[in-house]
Design goal:
- The chain has 204 residues and is α+β, with helices and mostly antiparallel strands.
- It has a single domain, classed as 3-Layer(aba) Sandwich (Aminopeptidase).
- It is 35% helix and 26% strand.
- Strands 1-2-3-4-5-6-8-7 form an 8-stranded mixed β-sheet, with helices on both faces.
- The longest helix has 27 residues.
- It is globular, with a radius of gyration of 18 Å.
Amino acid sequence: MSFDLQPSLTGKLLVLRPLRPEDFHDLYAVASDPLIWEQHPSSDRYQEEVFKKFFRDALESGGALIAIDSKDGRVIGSSRFHGYDQEKSEIEIGWTFLARSHWGGIYNGEMKELMLRHAFKFVESVVFLVGPQNLRSQKAVEKIGGVRVGLRRDASGRESFVYRTTAASFLETWEARGAAAHVRSVSKTCSTRRECRGPSLRSG
């Protein structure tokens, strides 16, 4: 089965769909914030001429997705599938950025969950290439279960850390997150009502 590099994916918080030429102005409105690129190897990508090349490359890649906030239909960022290797059963997810208004983990988490669930229909492992100085992205990838496994040159020839996750580790990570979210939800309900029915959530 051939890998579908540009699916349309819908979550609770955002929608991912194929990037189109007419998306440039809305996406650049997000990317023009210099602080988004502060730790990125391409720290000048907030400049319009630099971003134009990034956008053109994204369209030509055939794997770029734009992220839209489900609440108000606003463009909030993008990501990309790249380098599908059928023999290794591997694909890369990268070139991800989000508006600072949507930093904090939940939007990036859902974006990666949607993309990973899609990817694992076709491959056994997904890799992320992150610049050594990009501590923010390293932490974000580790937060979704990525494990650093070595070094590799990225598409621009820069040496990057390689993070990998497999279908098994992905399921383990996201099942744990789901269970933790359920416990937090029940705990909040108990605190509000000042009572809990059923087994105690406290250990010991």
